[in-house]
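Minutes, project huddle
Topic: does the predicted pose make sense with S-adenosyl-L-homocysteine bound?
PN asked that the exact inputs be recorded in the minutes so nobody has to dig through chat later. Recorded below.
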Amino acid sequence: MLENVRIILIGTSHPGNIGSVARAMKTMALSNLALVYPKCAIDEKSLALSAGASDVLNDHKVFSTLEEAVAECGLVIGASARQRTHDWPMLNPREVGDKVVQEASMYPVALVFGRENSGLTNDELQKCHFHVFIPANPDYSSLNLAMAVQILSYEVRMSFLNEIKPQVIQKQYPLAHEIEDMFKHLEEMLIETHFIRVNHPGHVMQKLRRFFAHARPETIELRMWRGIFTNIQKSIISATVEGTE
Ligand code: SAH
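Predicted holo structure (tokens), as shared on screen:
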């Protein structure tokens, strides 16, 4: 089950940090490490700081986009050192541990960490179902990357050792790539109905992403939404055809 817990680092620039993350993960029995467009290569510094966790380091996967890295994940949680202005569903580290353990038996889950100097972009945070903020010193809340990974991995381990029961398969949540497909479909439909003007899209999609993040639709609900979009599209086509007859 813990193999299903993927730690994703975006745009990491210090090789030593990647090694320290591998070590933080291995101490908590996590092994699934993914890098998204890393700004540095793994080198001797990474290896030295990974200590006995060179296996985790060497087994890492590399993806060119966050979307690809989380495509098969049913739960994606973004770790941010800043509390954002737009309110996204938030979890505290302990809740992250419980949720990860509850859901990792059903599908891969991802914990996403940002760049050392600038964290995660809003666009990346919007690809996450939940955000987690480690409630550190309000005057100095930015932890070193590997230490943030250590804290959240520790919480996952605590929930695992406390035998938080994996969620009984009743609620089936869609995978990240299914949600992205839904957003593409929704945007297409909103353009066809002229709710979104291509030249002036505004923040409609961003607000809808937030709405769906709060709702966290189950797989059958997502299918229903897609059916609704398809029917709206069909009725526009038939209205257009009738209008031209
Ligand atoms: N200067 C950056 C912080 C980067 S720290 C900023 O202002 O956003 C590198 C990464 O570690 C962050 O992107 C985040 O994923 C994680 N991290 C650091 N401190 C954190 C905290 N207090 N809560 C949650 N994640 C944190």
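Observations noted during the meeting:
- Strands lie at 5-10, 32-36, 61-63, 75-79, 90-91, 109-113, 130-132.
- The pocket of S-adenosyl-L-homocysteine is lined by residues 79-82, 113-114, 116-120, 132-134, 136, 141-143, 145, 148 (CB under 6 Å).
No decisions taken; revisit at the next huddle.
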